[in-house]
Specification:
Layout (H helix, E strand, L loop, with lengths): L1 E6 L4 H11 L5 E4 L10 H13 L5 E6 L3 H7 L7 E3 L3 H9 L5 E5 L5 H13 L6 H16 L3
Parallel strand pairs: 1-2, 1-3, 3-5, 4-5
Length: 150
Amino acid sequence: MRVAIGSDHGGFQLKELIKKELSGPELEFMDFGTHSTDSCDYPDIAFAVAEAVARGEFARGILICGTGIGMCIAANKVPGVRAALCHDVFSARATREHNDSNILTLGERVVGPGLAVMIVQTWLGTAFSGDERHKRRLAKIERYSVEGGN
């Protein structure tokens, strides 16, 4: 699986850890930056990862900042993106099974490194359930995104 990954300065250390811990023959990360702890603007990274995922260049994306909130807000502005902020394993599983999320956001200042790796492993390893009620709900979100309003 090809995964786009990015962070701002507040998520840089966790991004590097995730790449190191989880890279392997079945999982390839492309790093969209940042490449240091120097201050940068999270929307620039979020938009780049989200657009690449929305275009289908990557199966999924992971974005990390200090809290995960800013990255989630910015990524969800890109049509076709369903970004989910997760700070626990249950939510990571549920957002894949129920929401078919295609971007995971994390907060380096919120979750410890061990838990973050477990969240990412769970999120990457969980498939969308395909249940009709979840498909119906996702279709409503997509229609709203395209048509606006009711």
